[in-house]
Fold these 4 entries.
Entry 1:
Amino acid sequence: HLSQMAAVGTWSFSRPAVERMRCMLLAGQNATDVVETVMAEVEDDADTGRHIVGRGGYPNFKGVVECDAAIMEGVPGRFGAVAALRGIAQPCRVARKVMEKSPHSLLVGDGAEAFAQDLGFTSEANDNMLSHHTATAYQEFLEKNQPVSGGHDTIGLIALDLSGNITVGVSTSGAPFKSPGRVGDSPLPGCGLYADHTVGAAAATGDGDKIMCYCPSFHVVQLMKQGLSPNEACHDVLADIQRRIGDDKCFEIGLISLNMKGEAGAASSVEFPYTFWNQGLDSVEELIKHPKS
Ligand code: SD4
């Protein structure tokens, strides 16, 4: 039985990434390779990630870039992640190695870097992890002690391949000028991402210090399991958070999801563009979620 292929990504800047995923899926590549390869390209490019992903992501308040990344397949137990990882330009590739080569599921900091080096990854000097933009922004931060605004460009990608495999990946350099050692929602299963091959997958972006308190990606997948569409599930999860903390007090959170039929959905407390393709579409679409839509 051949499934409907599909790909979804967070924010407008994921459009070329989802375009690449489309080509790779149509060429018969499997969902995990597609997510890892495309995500690694975004991570390694100091510009496409718009300053919150991998190389070219904002550093912590000591000026050091620390990345979180995770990958999860729909198959039970297939999860790997790294957090507060320094000096590695493609953290999602290390996350996949954690999933495949380590008895553990999440490695952090120095231990994650040592694991990566053992597997042949080269650690880079922090200067190579900064871009002109982020190095300048960090100097301004030191001078004015002003945080950057509007920095939500974490990449979340979900792919569904021809054989019906679903994989979700998330990668981020986290909150700009965060405390060293700070870990966000992105590498935490159920928070930044979740997948279940009987149902679908979901990913989150936004204020990770808050997002991780609600396990929204797990919740979205559970609601789809109960029969909700990807869109309904994302909306219900957001509405549940808003009900609990007060509509007007809601933090920034954007959710994307994809089910095994290749249908996508999203919901967000802020204006949230996301990009989507499935076999029924000639090209990748950009859709925009507004807080009340
Ligand atoms: C974090 N959730 O580390 C991430 C940040 C993010 O778009 O999504 N930015 O908190």
Note: The CA atoms of residues 142 and 279 lie 48 Å apart.
Entry 2:
Amino acid sequence: EDEVLIIGSVLDLRDKPVSKVMTPIQDVFTLSMDAILDKETVDKILFHGYSRIPISAADNKAEFIGMLLVKQLITYDVDDALPVRHFNLSALPTISSDTSCLDILNFFQEGKSMQKHPTTDMSLTIPTLVLYIGHLALISSNPGGVGGALGVLTLEDVIEELIGEEIIDE
Ligand code: ADP
């Protein structure tokens, strides 16, 4: 039965750490807050095609201070050649790498930090999830501290996990 498969996939999320489904940091397109947004860099951003870019501290590539929303560049003139720090950066929440995929769903839904204990709340509905497509979290071995970034995770990574398992199971 489809219902059984779906419930099974959701239950599997409880046992799967986010570190298993994140995009590893070496594959993440990032910029330093000192990077100059000239034509070359903006072309690179467009080439990669991501909508959110983690921004590292000027003096420490391993420390992330926020993220740049690429849509902010729609009205930007590359001839101004401004540094990234000129732009309003959005917060980049840091999540511990042992957080479960189910807990991260709740995090994206609530937009605030999770309880310590694995949640059993499965009341997420598709409309509420859709609201949070667009959120990016930094996965870290050292949340709250500096450094330790292991990767990034979006809702899409978790949803793909749900759908992927369903397809394989069938
Ligand atoms: P986007 O809107 O940028 O396409 P999605 O939320 O659709 O982002 O995520 C698509 C995939 O891209 C996910 O696997 C996510 O982990 C990854 N991703 C998101 N931002 C970046 C980035 N800056 N660099 C590398 N991978 C990223």
Note: The first helix runs from residue 2 to 15.
Entry 3:
Amino acid sequence: MRKKYDYCIYIGRFQPFHLGHLQTVRIALEEASELIIVIGSHRTAPNIKNPWTSSQREQMIRLTLKDEPELLERIHFAPVRDQLYSDNLWVADIQQKVLAIAGDESAIAIIGHRKDESSYYLDSFPQWSYIETGNYRDIHSTDIRAAYLSRAPEASYYDKLPVGVQVSLSTFQSEARFAELCAEYDFIQQNKKAWSVAPYPPTFVTVDAVVVQSGHVLIVRRKSRYGSGLYALPGGFVDQDETLLEGMLRELKEETGLKVPMPVLRGSIVDSHVFDNPSRSLRGRTITHAYFIQLKAGKLPPVKGGDDADKALWMSLADLYIHEDLFFEDHFAIVLHFVSRV
Ligand code: NAD
């Protein structure tokens, strides 16, 4: 029988895919001939909010439906990157991916559940009908991740997961990345607890340096527990007795040992910008002031990791794109903000 819609669009992070998501997939396939699952936060570095890559998440969904090939063959997967500082770019990416699969003459509906303010994006596609699914058993991925990463008994969350996802989560426990994420989870919980006695939730101020020379960006590799091993911009928290500019130059010298005289560094600052997306850091509300330092073309000055960085390196812009999914917080987006202008 002909379905009401040609395509349903289902956007989500699916970290992990749970029985509430599965229920929506089933409703979507009742309503439409085909389903496009938009897997969000594609190429985000693994962290406690996004532990699994988009291909691992697609695999979880495929495993869940492996005994129902007639459903699986009606599903398309479209991984989509976050654009933390431009909802328009994010919407445009989804529009393009849907157009490429569905063409421009199909009857399309977006399906989802307006669970809270974070569901605002469901209103960004007025050209499509909307199907509200309602809430299924009050299941939340956040609770499942909390139980999983705090090593709670499986019985406390397995009843919220399809069997295929239970298997995937169990397999992932033997990977080194799982232990790192558990350590990061504990660290963030302790950090939150330490700040819980403050009279107001804290807002942290940080600074970052985006130093570019001859098609290369100065990058460090983090060694602190939070985001350990990820690439980041040199930077950190501002001290009580320094200006933002002084803090940025201090962190830059401490973390990279950059052999460029201070007056040259100061004179090479060509731009600065505040990055303030409320969800940019999992440690808590953190606003960063980034400075763009464009050095004259020539031989790259020597650098050496120090302080919170176990390594400092000049990364070519080509490598920057290749390693997008190894960048801490929004640092990849910060670099792109500046290098796309000059
Ligand atoms: P999610 O996996 O939490 O939820 C996906 C969908 O399932 C939502 O509609 C949600 O309401 C629904 N759902 C969850 N639990 C349910 C339950 N128990 N019963 C019924 N429905 C349930 O994913 P999400 O965080 O909403 O995904 C949004 C994605 O879009 C993210 O990747 C986010 O980063 C991305 N996004 C990006 C931008 C940008 O980059 N500018 C803007 C908005 C959203």
Note: The longest helix spans residues 176-195.
Entry 4:
Amino acid sequence: PKGDSGPRGEQWAWTAMPATRPCFYAQTEKSKGWKMELFLHGQSVGQKVFKTASFLKPFQEAQQVCAQAGGQLPSPRNAAENEALQQLVEFENKGAAFLSMTDSQTEGRFTYPGGEPLVYSNWNPGEPNNSGGNEHCVEMYTNGKWNDRPCGEKRLVICEF
Ligand code: 291
Ligand code: CA
């Protein structure tokens, strides 16, 4: 971070704003409307923010929606993150939501968008079962459990920032 002085001689520290979290920073800058929007349709857990788009899309389009907003689809990496996301899915009341992970690369081996293997999972009993041989995406049910599901299905879009 490099320093700079303001009009009253005050010192300002500059640091790069993480490009993946523009919405989060916008929230802190903007009016109460933004905070209310996040209160109703978002969840903050640790350093992470989940925000729902409140509409349903197939996986690829959902990915694009989140990338456009500077985020990505949700990757719950522990029980606390999973629970925060579950509360959002349940409150939104639009059914299951897509997670970020797929096993499109290697069947049965689910990975994050960067290709790393899962560090946490919350599969529903019997999942993932690749039912019909075409379930390469993951949905979170309203109870927080995970199920592998075809990527072409439309699910609630939630992004992580
Ligand atoms: C069953 C389980 C899941 C599977 C799902 C789909 C349903 O859950 O076998 O592992 O992903 O069926 O095959 O597909 C359609 N078209 O309904 C059903 C429950 C909630
Ligand atoms: Ca399944």
Note: The beta strands are 2-5, 11-14, 42-45, 48-57, 97-106, 109-111, 137-140, 146-149, 155-160.
